[in-house]
Inverse folding.
């Protein structure tokens, strides 16, 4: 029921003028039964894909829609809490960088770890929409890679609709965590602010959690050891930026094409994900795709050596990547042009940029 409700919300939010009651109902029915086998999951994904594309959503949006069901937990329609008894790390978790990983590590030490953040902030504040740093369909893989740091437990994302909590005072927000979500404790960075107009800080969080019988764990910011704040940030960025690792720094590094620096901030190689939705051309060892295929933020235009190609999570091999004004071009290093054969039946292509863990 949770998944079908979420799909309905997504469809109506995407453009409520073009979806009839029948079309929304059809998508709800696709998720009406539990998934028990890999074959059933693939069949259900195909049904959802065919339904969504038949009513006019581009493929990259259908992938994002599917990721709601696979990678995120949101407050169910019935109002129950899937985070009961857990430890929730608080933050935006946009880049899933090494600072965010430290929050997850602390949460795992105290109990069952969850990442709690808000969705819909851009719509509420009228912010310009921009590509995510981590593709929605790739977030589960990243969180799975954190398991060795978190006692072999994979942190789970849990999202709240920002419009439902934006007017809560710091006191009311902690009350909701305690009484409605029934968490056991919270983890936050030392610069975390919460409540209406960011009225509460880390010390307020500790005090309020103590009043409500919750554990509170404040984590020292992970600092960027290689850069000073003026090197990577610009005027108008977060005024609380004091040189700590941040999503803003990751975005700036991507915009500059500094993939070594990006990998240092993320603690992993950066993966660019493409949804194959037409317009792609394969000539011998080279595949070219329009930028509309990209599901997350691209690096700066230019040539990138030492990349790795994956097709539907299957490692293909080394490649080099060229990004120009309109397209992304992938050139395979191997001699066998037939390696592109799986591409025609694939949905996602991943490109990992080098440097993490390399000399």
């Amino acid at each position: 029921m949770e998944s079908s409700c979420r799909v309905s919300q997504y469809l109506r939010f995407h453009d409520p003028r073009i979806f009839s009651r029948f079309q929304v109902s059809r998508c709800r029915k696709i998720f009406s039964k539990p998934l028990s086998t890999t074959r059933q999951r693939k069949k259900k994904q195909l049904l959802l894909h065919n339904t969504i594309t038949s009513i006019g959503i581009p493929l990259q949006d259908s992938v994002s829609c599917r990721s709601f069901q696979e990678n995120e937990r949101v407050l169910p329609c019935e109002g129950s809490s899937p985070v009961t008894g857990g430890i929730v790390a608080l933050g935006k978790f946009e880049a899933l960088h090494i600072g965010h990983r430290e929050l997850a590590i602390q949460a795992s030490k105290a109990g069952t770890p969850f990442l709690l953040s808000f969705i819909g902030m851009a719509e509420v504040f009228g912010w310009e929409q921009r590509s995510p740093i981590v593709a929605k369909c790739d977030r589960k893989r990243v969180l799975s890679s954190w398991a060795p740091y978190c006692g072999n437990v994979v942190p789970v994302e849990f999202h709240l609709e920002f419009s439902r909590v934006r007017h809560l005072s710091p006191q009311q927000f902690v009350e909701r965590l305690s009484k409605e979500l029934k968490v056991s404790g919270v983890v936050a960075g030392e610069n975390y602010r919460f409540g209406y107009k960011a009225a509460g800080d880390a010390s307020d969080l500790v005090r309020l959690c103590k009043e409500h019988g919750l554990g509170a764990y404040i984590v020292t910011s992970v600092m960027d050891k290689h850069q000073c704040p003026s090197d990577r940030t610009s005027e108008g960025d977060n005024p609380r930026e004091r040189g700590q690792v941040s999503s803003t720094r990751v975005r700036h590094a991507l915009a500059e094409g500094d993939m070594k620096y990006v990998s240092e901030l993320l603690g992993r190689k950066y993966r660019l994900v493409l949804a194959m939705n037409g317009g792609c051309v394969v000539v011998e060892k080279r595949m070219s795709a329009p930028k509309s295929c990209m599901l997350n933020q691209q690096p700066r235009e230019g040539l990138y050596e030492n990349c790795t190609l994956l097709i539907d999570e299957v490692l293909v091999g080394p490649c080099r990547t060229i990004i120009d004004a309109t397209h992304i071009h992938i050139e395979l290093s191997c001699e066998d042009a037939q390696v592109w054969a799986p591409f025609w039946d694939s949905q996602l292509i991943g490109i990992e940029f080098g440097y993490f863990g390399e000399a």
Q: What stands out?
A: Confidence is low (pLDDT under 50) at residues 1-32, 46-72, 74-78, 228-237. The chain has 13 helices and 13 strands. The domain at 87-219 is CATH 3.40.50.620 (Rossmann fold). The first strand starts at residue 73 and ends at 74.
